[in-house]
Amino acid sequence: MVDVDKLDFLKEALVSLRGLTVQACNLEAKRLGFSEGKEILAVFTCSRVDELVEKIRNRESFKERIEAYFFEPQEKRYVEVFFIPEYSLLVVTDLTEEKRLNDAKLDFVTAVSHELSTPLSTLKGNLVYLEEIEKDPKKLEVLKKMERAVERLETTVNQLKTLSMIQLGLYELKVEEVDVRGLVGEVIEEFREELEKKNMKVNVLLEVDHVKTDRFAFRTILKNLLSNAVKYSYSGSTISVFLGPDRLSVKDEGIGIKDEEKDRIFERFYRGSEAVRMAPGSGLGLSIVKPLCNMMGYSLEVKSKWLMGSEFIVHFKG
């Protein structure tokens, strides 16, 4: 048995069990209502309490994040519960304040995104209407430029919201078998207009039809890598997209990345010196790709030669 009562300096609640009965506990556990001789069912409850109790009885290891009601403090707490059967040890980490802070941050990001998105949508709608009734070619071109600027702002707002959710740990992965053949086609189609303007083409080689991944994460990674390739490639060049069982790669024939800038390309808002002159952008695209790869357990490799092009390779097995 672990001498948990000697570990009062830890912020985690440590509870030594015999069956469902508390044998010993540290100071943090006592703050949550645990005490020697008390059954854990008399300490807290939650929507999945029967399932967790059954696992303890069967001596099955588990780690779960739950919202639980503790009877002695008489309050709900958001906690991580970790059971180690080898030591009959229950470890409870109180994450309530952390969750409140994250919720507040998310509320702020959501509110700001909403406050920006609503007027942008209104502005875009009015611009589209004006384009439909405008007959003067010069004025029409000005309206189209304004519409493209609004679309870039909308993209930036959405990217900031996505990046904030990822960094706050508020995005939960949903790993499943994804039809990547259809997904790749959808993403490329989104860039059809830009590709045609620059007289570019995309060569696609798919060795697999399905990949076990999170659809949103995979789509966001591919979309941002492809967006980067389209922006910084020369007119008339070719982008190559490869997808195999162990990796995804996007290769372009663009301006490439200077050696001294390679370590900074994944920083938020960072754009290389030549990139700023070549195409408009927020500098957020690659800063979203990196944390998404980390979440999925993927590794990201960059191969680039200045003025000759770049290749971004996502290795699925890390």
Describe the secondary structure blueprint for this structure.
Blueprint: E1 13-18, E2 21-25, H1 27-31, E3 44-45, H2 49-57, E4 62-70, E5 75-84, E6 89-94, H3 96-133, H4 137-167, E7 175-179, H5 180-190, H6 192-197, E8 201-206, E9 210-214, H7 215-231, E10 238-243, E11 247-251, H8 273-278, H9 285-296, E12 299-305, E13 309-315
Chain-averaged pLDDT: 88
| Total number of domains | 3
What's the helix-strand series? EEHEHEEEHHEHHEEHEEHHEE
Largest sheet: 6 strands, antiparallel
Helical run tally: 9
N/C terminus separation: 37 Å
Q: Any idea of the CATH class of the largest domain?
A: Alpha Beta
The second-level CATH architecture of the largest domain is: 2-Layer Sandwich
Question: What is the rounded Rg?
Answer: 26 Å
What is the overall shape? elongated
Molecular structure report:
The structure is a single chain. This protein is of the alpha+beta class. It has 3 domains: 4-94, PAS domain (Beta-Lactamase), CATH 3.30.450.20; 95-171, Orthogonal Bundle (Helix Hairpins); 173-318, 2-Layer Sandwich (Heat Shock Protein 90), CATH 3.30.565. Helix content is 42%, strand content 25%. It contains 9 helices and 13 strands. The protein has helices at residues 27-31, 49-57, 96-133, 137-167, 180-190, 192-197, 215-231, 273-278, 285-296; strands at 13-18, 21-25, 44-45, 62-70, 75-84, 89-94, 175-179, 201-206, 210-214, 238-243, 247-251, 299-305, 309-315. A hairpin with a 4-residue loop joins strand 5 (75-84) and strand 6 (89-94). Helix 7 runs antiparallel to helix 9 (285-296). The longest helix is centred in the middle third of the chain and has 38 residues, at 96-133.
